[in-house]
Structures
1.
Amino acid sequence: MTPSDGYLLNNRQDEAGERFGAFASLFDPVTFRHLEGVGVGPGRRCWEVGAGGTSVVSWLARQVGPAGQVVATDIDTSRLAAVARPPVEVRVHDVGADEPPGDGFDLVHARLVLVHVPDRERALRSMVSALRPGGMLLIEDADPALQPLICPDEHGPEQRLANRLRQGFRKLLADRGADLSYGRKLPRLLREAGLHDVAADAYFPVTSPACTALESATVRQIRGRLVAAGLATDEDIDRHLANVEAGGMDLATAPMISAWGRKG
Ligand SMILES: C[S@@+](CC[C@H](N)C(=O)[O-])C[C@H]1O[C@@H](n2cnc3c(N)ncnc32)[C@H](O)[C@@H]1O
């Protein structure tokens, strides 16, 4: 298995665009609040790791302005072409295997990335090494084991099916080397990496139209793998997608834990 094989959800499939749109709706307000908190402004140099779609990169580009720089990296940059112009530089890069794409960054940020990277220890070291002294690291990652249910209010057969399929999704992720308890470890890992003033918080939506869109796109994207692994039948998946489409189920997400610290 190569490091990039660790990622289950291919960015080139149509559903990836739907998923990135849902992440933006669900998590951008939280991410932008944290980025503002750690400090991003004109002239800053930022590395956006595992950028995926364009919303965070575009926001960072507006904050740093023409005098700044945003290096946006991903193992698959196919969704980033629209923002690949100064101050944004887009590079294909595996954060678990490649050298950092520069050094002396004021800010390094990754959202919902390291949980998927088999060598996340190396990835974290690389991100810290790319900071200037005084630079800020912000890592936001899921902790699906902390809140494993897509339907926390499991009150009927629709919700039970949804939670069973979610369990299958988690198994596929874990089999690919994802650490499903990663989010909670971030404060300790940041301190162990030598960062100062480490703090963290968590956020998850309990229901939202974007959760519905995310669930539909995710299940359509992994349906073949769920069936091949014997974790669900095509009938299960059709029934679940129809339930999701019908509305009325309160679909949540795993908590996203945001942790930040300063390089001494
Ligand atoms: C769940 S998506 C999150 C995308 C984006 N950060 C967001 O929050 O909307 C995970 C992203 O990490 C990327 N990724 C997975 N493994 C990676 C690795 N080893 N190095 C760099 N990027 C990786 C994927 O290609 C994908 O774009």
2.
Amino acid sequence: MIHFPRRALAQDLVTALQGKGLLGDAHNGLFLAAPRRTGKSTFLQADLQPALEQDGAVVVYVDLWADQRRDPGDLIAEAIGRTLIQQLGPVAKAARASGLENVTIAGVLKIDTSKIGKMDGATLTEALRALHQSAKAPVALIIDEAQHALTSEAGEAAMTALKSARDQLNRPGDIHLMLIMSGSDRDKLLRLVNTNGAPFYGSQIQRMPELGPDFIAHVVQLIEQQHPDLQPVDSAALATAFASFGHRPQFFMAAVGQALNPLADLQTRFEPAVLEAAHQRQAQDEAQMESEYLGLKPLEQAVLWRLLEQGQRFRPYDAEALRFYADKTGQPVTPPKAQNALESLRQRTPALVWKSARSEYAVDDAAMHRWFALRTQHGTWPPEEPQHPLPFDPGQF
Ligand SMILES: Nc1ncnc2c1ncn2[C@@H]1O[C@H](COP(=O)(O)OP(=O)(O)OP(=O)(O)O)[C@@H](O)[C@H]1O
Ligand SMILES: [Mg+2]
């Protein structure tokens, strides 16, 4: 698998995070959203992290989806603790080996690295301050799938603690803590920033740019190197296919690999085969959502429909919502009934609905919004069961 490096984008973000960009607010926290499988985690780890390190920062990376059974708050605290131990190196190891719980940093801070984030342990702010002081460098904390923090109270508390750490450690022009949060769903990330009570109220969510023409040019160059007989490769066709694959490199590269496979007995050019694979993928994704929708009970369908239609404005039990459900199902719907339907949408595997610790709801897979919008636009919403052929009526003859 090739990796296409995105150095320029990484460098731009590093500048913005340090508050050195003239405009923008990234020094207060950088919130990046991009759809699933478009390369967020790869970019954060393979491009942004090295760029930050190159610039002298100590980087903590944590993926809140790494283990969904663990509390997001614990995962964040542990990741900071791990980096802190690495930084403290021999001092910490010796202290731990001799049973000493506390490690003194720079002669000022005492910290028990096993208790960071716990109620009786060092607060996240202290831990981050300790990390900053022991590394003598700014700290960059990258939280991948950050929206997941909002699904537990401890996770939410960790976010509030990070906000407070940021405010304590940073001064204009003197940034000691950089926060980078990413997620696959803008709607969910918005809950971190959009209300007065949200931990990062005032910050903006940015769309992480998708891989674009330079990625395609890179792939084209590789193909032309390996298959000189295929020159010139039709890069416009590959760019169109990549867009149809939803800018997801994994599916795109798999299709390219398949089309170039010496065993694939290709009589014509390979580009149309890649385009065809992209269209099939799109059709498959839509068929999958359709069959999931059709497999739901009528009330579940109505609730999901309402959620898709209302987005952030969704209120599951207000009078208008109940009227909507009743209208779609042809039966009166009480709040407990609607609640059951919502719960079962959430408990399914894969889950169709996401819920925060404050009972805010969103569709689990943001790709559903696009599917809903397209179908509404084409007048094909809601999906319907395929028509069965009429039963044979012998009386007709
Ligand atoms: N710059 C790149 N060059 C080549 N391939 C890439 C690049 N970025 C991502 N990919 C490939 O795309 C796939 C998805 O990448 P990644 O896991 O980073 O995406 P993601 O947006 O974090 O996905 P998820 O929503 O599942 O967390 C991986 O197979 C990865 O190898
Ligand atoms: Mg990821």
